[in-house]
Amino acid sequence: MANEINNFQEIISHCKEYGYIFQSSELYDGLSAVYDYGQMGAQLKKNLRDEWWKSMTQMHDNIVGIDAAIFMHPTVWKASGHVDNFSDPMIDNKDSNKRYRVDHLIEAHVATLEKEAGETMIAEMDQLLAADDLAGLKTLIETNKIKCNISKTCNWTDVRQFNLMFSTQIGSVAEEADTIYLRPETAQGIFVNFLNVQKTGRMKIPFGIAQTGKAFRNEIVARQFIFRMREFEQMEMQFFVRPGTQMEWYNYWKDARKKWHESIGIPAEKLRFHDHVKLAHYADAALDIEFEFPFGWKELEGIHSRTDFDLTQHAKFSKKKIQYFDNDLNAEGKAYGNYTPFVVETSVGLDRLFLTVISLAYQEEKWNKEDGTEDSRVVLKIPAKIAPTKLAILPLLKKDGLPEIATALLNECKPHFHCFYEEKDAIGKRYRRMDAIGTPFCVTIDHQTKEDNTVTIRYRDTMTQERIPLSEVKNIVAKGCM
RNA sequence: GCGGAAGUAGCUCAUUUGGUAGAGCGAUAGCCUUCCAAGCUAUAGGUGGCCGGUUCGAGCCCGGUCUUCCGCUCCA
Questions:
Q1: Which residue approaches B10 most closely, CA to C1'?
Q2: Rounded distance, CA A4 to CA A294, Å?
Q3: Chain B bases near protein CB atoms (7 A cut-off)
Q4: CA spacing 20 to 30 A to A224: which of A101, A137, A331, A469?
Q5: CB of A369 nearer than 7 A to strand B
Q6: What is the full per-residue pLDDT of chain A (482 aa) written as tens digits?
Q7: CA distance A300 to A290
Q8: Are A363 and A438 contacting, i.e. CB atoms less than 8 angstroms apart?
Q9: How many whole angstroms separate alpha carbon A146 and alpha carbon A218?
């Protein structure tokens, strides 16, 4: 484990040194748990996003993609339950440093009381919660001598409100009614557009709506590099199904999503399922696809069976009917008719996926050269199809007409994939630089090229090289990146 | 949020008890060489995270603060 932690720090350093990830506002000492993607990182992230987008929307006839706004009507978050569930009064015990949700603490205490006294206390608590009376809640806890389970003391901090949603105002006048939130999840943008997409796209159930985009959570503790950030990007797809079939689709997507991760080079043994025991208020089944990060097994993607909770809630809060008319015939030969679809959600953290790919790709290699001396390199073995730069074009010398041939090759290739051209420094050094940023293919133009129109192609992962026709470079690299 | 550790050049680090900061690698320009970090020359890059205090004098001592990592906690 010590090695792995060490390794994790080296990955973080490497990400910075080679333009993958920088801390946000580093010039001003940084902003906690916010990161920027650099020139290499932005491209890798885009490639991951594109790969996901293609697998969802292009490869499934019945899934379409949308791009909903980050700002949404405030009532959306009341309907979704985020206003109630995302902002909880909390209190800390100063002796044990244990933090409790105030309502949980009081409810646990109530469970030890007589029925009548308990009900009185719950009623009092509800009143205080409704009035946002934080001082009153603390008084309630203290007068009833509610103790911490660990320290067995009543040494409490003040009750504080933690709201995991960021808020801001729309319009220039700061009034209560104008407060809006930065979305804490992208899913609601899909739910509120369910009818728009279904009707304009003439979608038939079962069908899905996919979306990628930023979401924001004011985490109490945000840490572990880009694993838990305050601003992060989700890639999610809501799959609308006929009520009663949700478990079938839940299992379908569970397998489909794991296979997708494997398709971008994540080894199966580094992935596992983790079923949720305690379910969220909206779900009837939920699991995580976990990856073995350098700091342990952690959630990479969530698969949730969200029932009809979200659509029902939005129908209720908007006072509009959100239903689907299903013309398919059931076993009795009658149309299924009107119903509120059930939803199976797949939701990946793009930043987590990025971290997964980088932590798998990062390798330090050592070997002995022919003369017996030791040699080494740091290489990012990013699968070719998601690597930020696909091909480096390197004239062996920057004279004798070699740069001209190289430039012509560059111009031929760059409309098709991302290339990098370099004529400085010894060839070995240039190879190492390409290893460090994860370029899967290098092509070197030398004097022989002028004679027989062949070049050397050098493979990042094996460091082997072979002679290929100059005219084949584009096709070979393009094929290697599929 | 609590506790622990840390912050010196792009990276990795040095700077013995307080006396105005160095190296290796890397980078840039040039020469030479040419298939796996070669050589030579030159150049750039740090108000020691930031603010304050003690001191004749602080990278070093003290306080605060920001950031990161680790453990706990939290994660609808």
A1: A17
A2: 6
A3: 1-2, 7, 10-12, 26-29, 33-38, 49-50, 66-76
A4: A101
A5: yes
A6: 334 445 788 888 888 888 899 888 888 878 888 889 999 999 999 999 999 999 999 999 999 999 999 999 989 998 988 877 666 677 766 665 566 777 777 777 777 777 787 778 777 777 777 666 777 777 777 777 777 666 666 766 667 666 788 888 877 655 555 778 899 999 999 999 999 999 999 999 999 999 999 999 887 777 788 888 889 999 999 999 999 999 999 999 999 999 999 999 999 999 999 988 777 777 889 999 999 888 888 899 999 999 999 999 999 999 999 999 999 998 888 999 999 999 999 999 999 999 999 989 998 888 877 777 778 888 999 999 999 999 999 999 888 889 999 999 999 999 999 999 998 888 989 999 999 999 999 999 999 999 999 999 999 999 999 999 999 999 999 999 98
A7: 5
A8: no
A9: 29
- Run of H or E residues at A479: helix A473-480
Domains defined for chain A, CATH in brackets: 2-72+182-358 (3.30.930.10), 87-163 (3.30.40.230), 389-480 (3.40.50.800)
- How far: A429 CA to B43 C1' (Å)? 21
Which residue is closest, via its CA, to the C1' of B36?
A428
Q: Which helix (DSSP H) or strand (DSSP E) does residue A269 occupy?
A: none
In the complex, which nucleotide's C1' lies nearest to the CA atom of residue A427? B35
Neighbours of A365 (CB within 10 A): 12
- Number of other residues whose CB lies within 10 A of the CB of residue A102: 24
Residue A185 CA and nucleotide B19 C1' are separated, in Å, by 57
Angle CA A195–A199–A203, to nearest 5: 100
Amino acid at A94: K
- CA separation, residue A282 to residues A33, A275, A345 (Å): 28, 16, 11
Residues A362 and A14: beta-carbon distance below 8 Å: yes
Question: What does the alpha-carbon distance between residue A303 and residue A239 come to, in Å, rounded to a whole number?
Answer: 11
Interface confidence, given as ipTM, is: 0.86
Between the CA of A112 and the C1' of B1, what is the distance in angstroms? Answer: 28
From the CA of A464 to the C1' of B74: give the distance in Å: 49
Does residue A40 contact residue A388 with C-beta atoms inside 8 Å? yes
